[in-house]
Each structure stands twice: as C-alpha cells, then as structure tokens.
C-alpha cells in the first residue's frame, strides 16, 4: 500500500483476501471526516479506482469557503 502513498496507523489491521471465479469481495472506502452534509454525487466524486480496490483511502473534500 505504501507504493500507492497510503500510510496507515499502527493500530490498523490489514487483511488480504483473493477473489475467485465464485467469490468476489467489495471494498467500501471509509467515509472521509466532515462529509456529513455532502450529496451522493459529491461523495461519489471522492471515490477513486484505487480506493475501491482498497489500496488508498477516499479523497478528502475541498471544504474551503468560496472566495467572493
């Protein structure tokens, strides 16, 4: 996972499971903090291919206030 730039805390357990023709696994990326008010489309934009296969976490949203 480090090859993808993913650093995990020491207390995080990682399990590697291989899929087969009869069995597939689904990875649900952890929801980023401070995203409670985001729409489904906004949340979907944070998910990448790498986060769906479990090698990176979902992107953090850009919650900076808009400049006026």
Folded structure, characterized:
The chain is low in regular secondary structure and 68 residues long. It has one domain (1-8, 23-62). It contains two helices and no strands. The chain is globular.
Outline of the structure:
This protein is mostly loops. The chain has helices spanning 40-44, 49-52.
Give a topology summary.
Elements: H1 40-44, H2 49-52
Keywords:
globular; little secondary structure; 68 residues; 2 helices
- Give the amount of beta strand, in percent: under 5%
Residue-averaged pLDDT, rounded?
85
Cα end-to-end separation? 40 Å
**Helix run count:** 2
**What is the 3D shape?**
globular
Report the sheet with the most strands, covering strand number, pairing sense and barrel closure: none
- If you compute it from the alpha carbons, what radius of gyration comes out, rounded to the nearest whole angstrom? 15 Å
Find the structural class using helix and strand composition.
little secondary structure
């Amino acid at each position: 996972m480090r090859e993808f730039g993913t650093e995990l805390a020491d207390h995080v357990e990682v399990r590697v499971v291989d899929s087969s023709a009869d069995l597939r696994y689904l990875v649900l990326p952890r929801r980023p903090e401070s995203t409670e008010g985001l729409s489904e489309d906004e949340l979907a934009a944070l998910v990448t291919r790498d986060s769906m296969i479990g090698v990176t976490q979902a992107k953090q949203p850009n919650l900076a206030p808009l400049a006026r």
